[in-house]
Each structure stands twice: as C-alpha cells, then as structure tokens.
Automatic annotation (TrEMBL):
A Pfam family the protein falls into: Lectin_C
PROSITE patterns in the record: C_TYPE_LECTIN_2
Domain C-type lectin: 77-180
Region (Disordered): 1-30
Name of the molecule in the record: C-type lectin domain family 2 member B
Gene Ontology terms: biological process: NK T cell activation
C-alpha cells in the first residue's frame, strides 16, 4: 500500500513567502552596506596613498634642494670644501694648482677651522694662503691683513701648516698644499 503524501505548497503571498522576501531584502541591504563600506575603505586607502606619496616626494625633493656637496677628493667642513694635495710643490705652483680648481690656498678664519685642518693634514706640512708682503705685513691670498689671532713662527715669506701650528719658509720649498672653496 502506497500512501502518497502531498505537501501543500504555501500560497503565494502567505506568511512563509513574506519571511523569505524579508530575508532577501535584508541580504540585499547588507550587500549594499558592505559594498559601501568597501568603497569607503578603498577611497580612504587611495587618499592616504596619494598623501603619503606626495609627502615622500616633497621631502626627497626638498632634501636635494638644500644639500650641498664638495667635489670628489675634497672634504667638507662647515660651509667650505678643502682639498689636501697628495703631490708637493712650491708655494706659487701650489697656489696655481688651486687656481685650476677655481679656488685658492686656504685661509684660516676660526679656531675650529684650524683644528679641522691640523687634524686632516696628517703628518705632512701643507702650504696655506698666508704670505709676508714687502712691507713686512702678513696678508691672506684674498688681500686681507692677517689679524694675528694665531702665532706664525718664522720670518720667511710663505706660510705653511705643520703639527705645531703655522710657520714660514722660503717659497721655493716643496710641500703639499690645501685649497679651500665654498660649498656649492
């Protein structure tokens, strides 16, 4: 005996159908809400990415605008570059060698600069841009009179830096030299 059982299909528009439609509506609303949330997150991410990129490049570009460099083989100190020669020459040829670099033999303006030069010259003596004029006045290569803020030993015409400070010698003596120029 076979019994057949029939299940009555819910009537359209009945209570079960209303629940089903409400569930679909809720899912649809949640889907839209999730989509809006995702769009907002993507938008915030893009804006943040753009802002960070702009900041990164503005900092990098600003850094290159304000940085100054000394030429290869020159040493920077404060706002100047110094070249300590490896070769030797007399005072005049040393000055000429500096002029080929569009500069001159170094002057020494401050105690800090003196310490820097003495520290970097190693054990060799180096010509500097101080000389005795015919009137027995010491002048820097730029024409300013030496104000005697440090002692210069000796009475010869051309000055050089050694381990003890500054001394003079005859200009034809062979020594290394130090050139100085502004940072560019």
């Amino acid at each position: 005996m076979t019994q057949s059982r029939q299940v009555a299909a819910p009537a359209q528009g009945g209570p079960e159908n209303d629940n089903s439609n409400q569930g679909k509506e809720t899912q649809k609303k949640q889907g839209i809400k999730n989509m809006k949330d995702k769009c907002i997150l993507i938008f915030i991410g893009l804006v943040l990415g753009i802002v960070l990129t702009i900041l990164y490049f503005s900092i990098c570009l600003k850094g290159t605008e304000t940085q100054h460099f000394c030429p290869h083989d020159w040493i920077g100190f404060q706002d100047k570059c110094y070249y300590f020669s490896k070769e030797e020459g007399d005072w005049n040829s040393s000055r000429y060698n500096c002029s080929t670099q569009h500069t001159d033999l170094t002057m020494i303006d401050t105690v800090e600069e003196m310490h820097f030069l003495r520290r970097h010259k190693c054990t060799s003596d180096h010509w500097i841009g101080l000389e005795m004029t015919e009137n027995q006045i010491r002048k820097w290569v730029n024409g300013t009179v030496f104000n005697k803020w440090f002692t210069v030993r000796g009475n010869e015409k051309c000055a050089y830096l050694n381990d003890d400070g500054v001394a003079t010698a005859r200009c034809y003596t062979e020594r290394k030299w130090i050139c100085r120029k502004k940072v560019h």
